[in-house]
Amino acid sequence: xxxxxxxxxxxxxxxxxxxxxxxxxxxxxxxxxxxxxxxxxxxxxxxxxxxxxxxxxxxxxxxxxxxxxxxxxxxxxxxxxxxxxxxxxxxxxxxxxxxxxxxxxxxxxxxxxxxxxxxxxxxxxxxxxxxxxxxxxxxxxxxxxxxxxxxxxxxxxxxxxxxxxxxxxxxxxxxxxxxxxxxxxxxxxxxxxxxx
Length: 196
Hints:
Blueprint: H1 7-12, H2 19-73, E1 76-79, E2 93-98, E3 105-116, E4 122-130, E5 135-142, E6 148-154, E7 157-173, E8 176-184
Antiparallel strand pairs: 1-2, 2-3, 3-4, 4-5, 6-7, 7-8
């Protein structure tokens, strides 16, 4: 006995996808692609933010480390009374000491200069020069209004100065801000050899 199939039945038995199946597959693929793109964008943003935070922390640490090391052995500390373009109280800082082994004198100057970051803000670049041998950059993203150094005064009496240098540093990298405050006591002071 012979069974005749109508044309519609023959089409159903042919391999392939229907238009509806293709549209569903395309929609699912688009959802996966958009979700993956959003996740990648989020990860890149988090990574950039973490990188900015680390750089700001490193800048604050470097300033505290370098100035702290040099002030600790300084026998002469000179702070500027004026500001640079209305910013950076106390800079330039001039530090000098005499090496007890060979009698040579070392002079280090910390100075600041204006720079502009990629957001168009004016920040400070801190440079360190040793014995006029050229500058090395210590930090590049210092906030001009929140970075300063001064001689500490006795508690409650603003006219009596102590032999402690106070260093306040704020670094701003893009939208990340990190701060640090240091009180540095020159070692040579105990021998009565520090002049301000």
